[in-house]
Design brief:
single chain, alpha/beta, Purple Acid Phosphatase, chain A, domain 2, 2 domains, globular
């Protein structure tokens, strides 16, 4: 049995440890552990002589104080130093949790517009980009305010659309999927559709047999992605945001931890899920440092 002194010592230790974890999770990891995560591979449907470097930005969740326009500018500078051919933005640029002050979309979108890649910057929207705009959810079409602000800054935003690009005389396609959970119930109302995604419609815009890279904010679409698509890129999960030695207590996916993070291969189809940069629900990250993803395709 613990005596009073031992009990107080134990409680003090627990309080100090809990405080240290809270400080690490809310300040150290989200703000000071940004990393560049690299992959190099060649999917079966990707030409081995087409070398392409991609820089992927996911889940920015711009807000003050955790993800200000100034910090976005610093992240953009780091991305620009990677020598990517394309910069690909896979959604959730705004934060809707309560522990923040909104960062003006005009500010962070101008920062993103400084991305410098010879084959351009290509973006899709995420669920929070829709959820922050109730009027757009009710309308059920077009782009929410976030997408319009990005377009005003000169960024290309895709919603079930495709663009054909060429590098070294070899073509490939970027296909941007509309968000899969864009419409959530608003008080007293439910939209007849759950998402604005149209995978088949987007892929019909691919007009030749050149390889395809699919941008899809949520990775849950991956089981439905045909082998025609060389690579699917997603975010949304934040790697679970809390990762205790591989145990992720909350992954926002119908598939649990199956697509929580990293490079996944199923039936020769490739998916990369980024842990993203910002925070959702609460400004805490433990075991899931914020990251920029750099992928080299056409590499042995």
């Amino acid at each position: 049995m613990l005596n009073r002194r031992a009990f107080l010592r134990l409680m003090t230790t627990l309080i100090v440890a809990g405080g240290g974890i809270a400080i690490y999770g809310s300040l150290v990891e989200p703000l000071f552990r940004l990393r560049v995560t690299r992959y190099a591979f060649t999917p079966p449907t990707w030409p081995k002589d087409l070398r392409l470097r991609l820089a992927i930005v996911a889940d920015l969740h711009a807000c003050d104080p955790w993800m200000t326009a100034e910090r976005v500018t610093e992240i953009v500078d780091l991305i620009n130093s990677q020598g990517a051919d394309c910069a690909l933005l896979v959604g959730d640029y705004v934060a809707t949790h309560k522990f923040q002050r909104q960062e003006p979309a005009s500010a962070w979108s101008r920062a993103l517009a400084r991305l410098d890649a010879p084959l351009g910057v290509h973006a899709v929207l995420g669920n929070h980009d829709w959820w922050a705009d109730e009027a757009s959810m009710r309308r059920g079409e077009g782009l929410p305010d976030v997408g319009k602000a990005m377009q005003d800054a000169g960024l290309a935003v895709y919603q079930n659309d495709a663009v054909r690009l060429v590098k070294d005389g070899k073509a490939f396609w970027i296909v941007g999927l509309g968000d899969q959970i864009a419409f959530v119930p608003v008080r007293g109302w439910r939209h007849p559709r759950y998402g604005i995604d149209d995978l088949n419609g987007a892929l019909t815009k691919v007009a030749d047999d050149a390889p395809v890279i699919l941008l899809a904010h949520e990775p849950d679409i991956f089981p439905s992605v045909p082998a025609r698509v060389s690579l699917t890129l997603s975010g949304h999960t934040h790697g679970g945001q809390l990762n205790f030695f591989g145990w992720r207590p909350n992954v926002p996916s119908h598939y649990g931890a199956r697509y929580a993070y990293g490079h996944k291969i199923e039936n020769d189809r490739h998916l990369v899920v980024s842990a993203g940069l910002g925070c959702s629900i609460a400004p805490v990250r433990i075991g899931c440092p914020p990251e920029i993803v750099v992928i080299d395709l056409g590499v042995a």
